[in-house]
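Sample 1 of the test manifest.
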Amino acid sequence: EAGVTQFPSHSVIEKGQTVTLRCDPISGHDNLYWYRRVMGKEIKFLLHFVKESKQDESGMPNNRFLAERTGGTYSTLKVQPAELEDSGVYFCASSQGAPGNSGNTIYFGEGSWLTVV
Amino acid sequence: AQKVTQAQTEISVVEKEDVTLDCVYETRDTTYYLFWYKQPPSGELVFLIRRNSFDEQNEISGRYSWNFQKSTSSFNFTITASQVVDSAVYFCALSGFTGGGNKLTFGTGTQLKVEL
């Protein structure tokens, strides 16, 4: 069974440009999450989808970030326009249910490493 | 608010040594889950363990063991007879019902280097 896959694995863009990150969750997982790790800091929650609906987007840093999950399958995270402080690793994760419920584990992808220069 | 502290930024050991990674957490929830993830050089976050707040029994899985102590709000991770392949960043995380139970709050990670 395929795990969580993310594309691209690495991206270097100039300040002001746009980047779109894609995530394919594990098949059958209704819950999809985006997290981000800025260099040397903790991994921080960005948002959570349940199917195609945004359940919680309290971690999105500002309106330059837009996440979508059309059809409840894969998700995209667009950064437009990118700023230097957006550099970091963007992790996507998925789970069958919420992690607070017994038996549900969040599985992460390899991350998309974004560098804004 | 929830918080996870991993005070050890980096640990270096020689192969076959035992090493303990510390994790201290803060939460007001009475029901919560604790996790450990491993991030090898390949980048993927690999799930290691999930423990709920009502189960303080220690767990052992091969060379890995976890010591959960509610009294000190700690969930420490020990690797016995470390190997070079254990070199990675290890993250401790917490999920509670505050915030809907859908988020993981991570620590800053501990970089473990195992040398020959």
